[in-house]
Amino acid sequence: MNGPADRPRLPGDPTPEGEVARMVRVDQAGEYGAARIYAGQLAVLGHTASGPAIRHMAEQEQKHLKAFDRQLLERRVRPTLLQPVWHVAGFALGAATALLGEKAAMACTAAVETVIDEHYRQQSAALGPREPALREQIEEFRAEELEHRDTALAAGAEEAPAYPVLSGLIRAGSRAAIWLSTRI
Known about the structure:
single chain, 184 residues, 0% strand
């Protein structure tokens, strides 16, 4: 079995097209949320030593967001209804962790990007040979998200105060946001 198209559908399961629409919806929401996190971090740390690295990651997230915005339009997929929530929550998470210090901001980045790596890997596997252009885009963005995670770890993310707790909470919140944005 390569993915959803290869297993029997149960009542209530999305069609393969519906599954792809969910992927595009949640990916656009995730990239939107990531852009807002980096905006919050830049508002606090933009003029610090971490500023250039955060700015670089923010620029890549904007590229990802534009690509998924195009996918929404081309595929006629509605965005998540939670976009206003992610607008505020993303910025607040970025700014709050940045106010805790540069290492806490990097801990936030490492936690989010760890979850996004898992998410994109699962999507790529679920797509299998279907939708090769979408799968290629997901893999390209996944590589950049891993670069962000590695940048954050190299910048001392694991040295942030209460790193295991902070990272665990952010990872759990990211997984919840993915689940919600897929469905709402």
